[in-house]
């Protein structure tokens, strides 16, 4: 069983030996390994049971480190990094040959991010290599936001979980790329597109669902708990599924039901984002066959929350 602790030196030694460990970030916990070592990257895919066509994100200590692994960095990308790094923003950039094909699923671009968590930032600054780190959970399942979540799912398959407390943001990073259309959002995430637009102006949203992704988080079905998620207007769902063993995932309204999770009684989208994955995960310990869920207001972080709910319901 994995050891849970706060020992950066232990995590560093394991990573340098080619092992994979779980690390905390402000978005979700990641399953990390040396991004420059193909054997270690293979281990990440194996531990997660992740298909090799789904690319990984490379975690770096900052823009200076980024220059070692990206062939070109557009001025607008540097502007975004200056505004939001460390933070929940991933930049999709042309990669150098030192990034293995396995990391990017053979694509010419790689996603780069500087995570905003003190333990992981200190770890990255001590390592001589970047970290490939998808979410630390079995492929397709709900992403982990605590060390205990990781231990429950992958504790038998990894040696160490670096415990950094609960993730402050709670959903994965926003992924942006750069092409002839300008700045393109490939995955909605923990940084609202309104914030990106404030810094660089026009943003093109190309948040797609596909079986052939160019960035993580684009697969049609993802982020799903064990019970089936059914998404729609809550009153309609309650009428339609009244004879089924159901749980309720609501945004802010409380229902007189024993198996309910409320994302934010105050109607706060940031709180809802932090609670989304832990709420979905909680239904796995309840006697329910389906989870009736409603969308949240589709603004700011609400767009990313609704994206995760739609994929969980696919």
Characterization of the model:
The structure is a single chain. It contains eleven helices and 15 strands. The protein has 314 residues and is α/β, with parallel strands linked by helices. The chain has two domains: 203 residues, Alpha-Beta Complex (DHBP synthase), CATH 3.90.870; 85 residues, Threonylcarbamoyl-AMP synthase, C-terminal domain (Rossmann fold), CATH 3.40.50. The strands form three sheets. A nine-stranded mixed beta sheet has the order 2-3-7-4-6-5-9-10-11, sandwiched between helices. Helix 8 links the parallel strand 10 and strand 11. The radius of gyration is 19 Å and the shape is globular.
Largest sheet strand order: 2-3-7-4-6-5-9-10-11
Distance between the termini: 32 Å
Write the H/E string, N to C.
EHEEHEHHEHEHEHEEEHEEHEEHEH
> What is the molecular shape?
globular
Q: Which bin fits the share of residues in helices? A: 25-40%
Query: Which spans have pLDDT < 50 for at least 5 consecutive residues?
Result: none
Major β-sheet, in short? 9 strands, mixed
CATH superfamily of the largest domain: DHBP synthase
Strand content: 15-25%
The CATH C-level name of the largest domain is Alpha Beta
Q: Per CATH, what is the topology of the largest domain?
A: DHBP synthase
Summarize the structure.
The chain is α/β, with parallel strands linked by helices and 314 residues long. It folds into two domains: 3-205, Alpha-Beta Complex (DHBP synthase), CATH 3.90.870; 228-312, 3-Layer(aba) Sandwich (Rossmann fold), CATH 3.40.50. The protein has helices at 8-16, 38-48, 63-66, 75-84, 101-104, 118-126, 147-154, 193-200, 234-240, 269-282, 301-312, and strands spanning 3-5, 21-23, 30-34, 57-59, 89-94, 109-113, 131-132, 160-162, 174-179, 182-187, 203-205, 228-231, 246-250, 260-262, 290-293.
């Amino acid at each position: 069983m994995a050891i849970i602790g706060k020992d950066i030196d232990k995590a560093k030694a394991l990573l340098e030996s080619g092992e994979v460990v779980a690390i905390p970030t402000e978005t979700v916990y990641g399953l990390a390994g040396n991004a420059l070592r193909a054997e270690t990257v293979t281990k990440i895919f194996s531990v997660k049971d992740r298909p090799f066509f789904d690319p990984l994100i490379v975690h770096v200590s900052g823009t200076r480190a980024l220059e070692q692994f990206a062939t070109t960095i557009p001025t607008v990308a540097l502007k975004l990094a200056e505004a939001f790094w460390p933070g929940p923003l991933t930049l999709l950039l042309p990669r150098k040959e030192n990034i293995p094909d396995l990391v990017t699923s053979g694509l010419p671009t790689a996603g780069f991010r500087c995570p905003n968590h003190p333990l992981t930032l200190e770890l990255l600054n001590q390592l001589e290599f970047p970290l490939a780190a998808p979410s630390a959970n079995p492929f397709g399942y709900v992403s982990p936001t605590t060390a205990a979540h990781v231990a429950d799912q992958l504790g038998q398959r990894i040696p160490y979980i670096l415990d950094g407390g609960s993730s402050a943001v709670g959903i994965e990073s926003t992924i942006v790329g750069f092409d002839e259309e300008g700045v393109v959002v490939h995955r909605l995430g923990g940084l609202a597109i309104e914030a990106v637009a404030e810094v660089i102006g026009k943003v093109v949203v190309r948040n797609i669902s596909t079986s052939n992704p160019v960035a993580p988080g684009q697969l049609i079905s993802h982020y799903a708990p064990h019970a089936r998620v059914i998404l729609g207007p809550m009153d309609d769902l309650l009428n339609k599924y009244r004879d089924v063993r159901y749980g309720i995932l609501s945004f802010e309204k409380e229902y007189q039901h024993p198996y309910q999770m409320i994302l934010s009684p105050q109607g706060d989208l940031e709180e809802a984002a932090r609670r989304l994955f832990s709420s979905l995960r909680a239904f796995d310990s309840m006697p329910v066959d389906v989870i009736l869920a409603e969308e949240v207001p589709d603004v700011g972080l609400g767009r990313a929350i609704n994206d995760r709910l739609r994929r969980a319901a696919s």
